[in-house]
Amino acid sequence: MRSKADAEIRELLRTSAARLLERIPGLTDELVRRGRESDEAYRINIPLDDHWQSTHEGLRVGITAILQPAHERRDVAYAQTVGRRRAEHGLPLDSLMRSYRLAAQVTWNGFIDIVGDHSPHKLPALLRCATHVWHAIDRQAVAAADAYRRRENELLGRSNERIHAMLDALLEGRADAAAGEVAAALDLPEHGRYAVVTTRLPERAHRPEIIGGMVFLWRMRTDHEMAVVSMGDRSLDDLVEAIGPIVCGTAGVSPVVEGLAELGTARKLAELAMRTCSGGKPEIARLDRRLPAALVVCQPELARHLAARVLGPVLSSPERGVLLATLEAWLRCEGSAVRVAGELYCHRNTVFNRVRRIEQMTGRSPSRPLDAVELSLALDAVRLLPDP
């Protein structure tokens, strides 16, 4: 008896579906009208013709599926197509899901009208079909949502890749025209204050996107990393303080530039600043405070010639290490023998004796401004440049 009743219900559903197919244009009109009236996203993102055609086809495919064997049904495949297209149109997923719930209501009401018009005494039997109809539409909605999310992730990945490619082009100084598009995509000012940081972070290091109220956009390179930093009203002192806890090696900080289009210049200056670090210990180099050293690394041949000419006798002396350390401390401590002695753990008279030997060997005195400049640049050359 149960199998007979089930067969009668399936026949009722197929008969009603066949008749409902004739009413699809009217159902489409109702569904599109109600959808656009209740959801602004459809009015903004989906042209009316597209909305009507896709709804008409969706109803036709969905209702036809009731008449077909499982292996011939196209309703789920079509729902996946709709989900992908709506993701491409930028329609919110919630709007797409509401449209399927509305379609379920309109379709079910259509079945009730059909049976009520032709076989009202079978309305109780139709109620036993409700689960089948609603389950079929729910299955379509799930398929559409899954396809939507996959396509959205694909589009987001491509968009991010494109934005990063444009940002890289700005860092390479190749695409000033992209500055406005990058600014809009990242919600950053095109003409704001920016700096570039170059550094080497551990492989597992956390790379924060917000540090000290500044926005960091990290980009990978083969031998180092760099960050485009949206400074806001922060200073370079604030920036150096902010990155201190995450820098375990050397880092270079560019001067502030006024806009994304100047990132290429900032990147070069940050890399130059990092080249002024000797690498022996963690160090953050601001270019604006390393200009003499930057000149040295920019002209290595000339700098080596300067070092040989100015410090040649010291470099060939058995006391090379002691004398260079003393000279460096003397210049750093502005000629204070007491401070130098404290740094080098020796007597102040020892400091004076070493400085005198340096003067005799080089013919230059650290107390004379021009000689001090030459000695300082020569020291930078010895510290930063490998032996030829």
Automatic annotation (TrEMBL):
Q: Which organism is it from?
A: Planotetraspora thailandica
Enumerate the InterPro entries for this protein. Answer: CdaR-like_regulators, PucR_C-HTH_dom, PucR_C-HTH_sf, RsbRD_N_dom
What taxonomic lineage is listed for the species of origin? Bacteria, Bacillati, Actinomycetota, Actinomycetes, Streptosporangiales
Could you tell me which Gene3D superfamilies the record lists for this protein? PucR C-terminal helix-turn-helix domain (1.10.10.2840)
Q: Which residues form the PucR C-terminal helix-turn-helix domain?
A: 323-381
Outline the extent of the RsbT co-antagonist protein RsbRD N-terminal domain: 25-162
Please, which domain of life does this record's source organism belong to? Answer: Bacteria
Question: Which Pfam family name is an example for this entry?
Answer: HTH_30
In Swiss-Prot or TrEMBL terms, this protein is called PucR family transcriptional regulator
